Amino acid sequence: MNRAELFSQIQKKSSFLCVGLDPDLAKIPSHLKNEADPIYSFCKQIIEETADFAVAYKPNIAFFEALGPKGWETLQKVLECMPKDVFSIADAKRGDIGNTSKLYAKAFFESMDFDSITVAPYMGKDSVTPFLEFDNKWVILLALTSNIGSQDFQLIEDANGKPLFKSVLEKSQEWGTPDNLMYVVGATRGELIGEVRKSAPDHFFLVPGVGAQGGSLSEVAKYGMNSTCGLLVNSSRGIIYASTEKDFAKVARQEAKKLQIEMKDLMDQYL
Ligand SMILES: O=C(O)c1cc(=O)[nH]c(=O)n1[C@@H]1O[C@H](COP(=O)(O)O)[C@@H](O)[C@H]1O
């Protein structure tokens, strides 16, 4: 999916919601556990019920890898049951020396047909660029993450007072463009999202951290929205585990709808 198509989906659905698929066998409703593939059944129902309100889905690969070889088959089935007009994100946080990154890219862009993958910038140019060599595929580079540990490295300032996350933003714009590179920016970072926006005015941001981690959607929009929205805001647990009973998918739908309504208001205000 290219940038114009993504923006068109955002306009069509009046939504910039990404539903995070972090399916944990210990947390899914117990009635699903007798099914042949409980995680698939869980994700499929979540996708079916939220598709009216979501423009993207982000399976977190850890939750599938943890299931062993079968988890990869489940991931593939989950990817295939997503509607064709949504943006798919493999949240794999990969990145290694060049020839290894190339194979990670093939795994997620060719063996599986994800639109995008999350990538860690720490190993630099040759670890990131192999992911950028695929048509209509995207790298989503970790810039300023939502977790507490983000301050350990990302906020460290160089001799000129520039924090490391800004160097990541500046340097990586030599490798990719707003048409194949997005950034992860945590919703818990409030005003700092505005700093990231200054360094990357045209790029899309994947913004996790609303819902369970307490980030504010209105602050994200206030500081992060650009003229083509420029935001995909993720909520995982706040949607998929809003109910752990038989009505889980319907309740997930309600939660997704609540976020979409809020997003529509914010788009009306800032777009
Ligand atoms: O890359 C990510 O998606 C990510 C980056 C980040 O800074 N913070 C973050 O929470 N995430 C992911 O986003 C999801 C957030 O889940 P919830 O907190 O349940 O909404 C998880 O899959 C995290 O791995």
UniProtKB/TrEMBL annotation:
UniProt KW keywords: Decarboxylase, Lyase, Pyrimidine biosynthesis
Annotated pathway: Pyrimidine metabolism; UMP biosynthesis via de novo pathway; UMP from orotate: step 2/2
Record keyword Transferase present: no
GO biological process: 'de novo' pyrimidine nucleobase biosynthetic process; 'de novo' UMP biosynthetic process
Sequence ranges assigned to domain Orotidine 5'-phosphate decarboxylase in this UniProt record: 16-252
Catalyzed reactions: orotidine 5'-phosphate + H(+) = UMP + CO2
GO molecular function: orotidine-5'-phosphate decarboxylase activity
Family classification: Belongs to the OMP decarboxylase family. Type 2 subfamily.
The name this protein goes by in its record: Orotidine 5'-phosphate decarboxylase
Source species of the chain: Algoriphagus zhangzhouensis
Lineage: Bacteria, Pseudomonadati, Bacteroidota, Cytophagia, Cytophagales
Name of the gene this protein is made from: pyrF
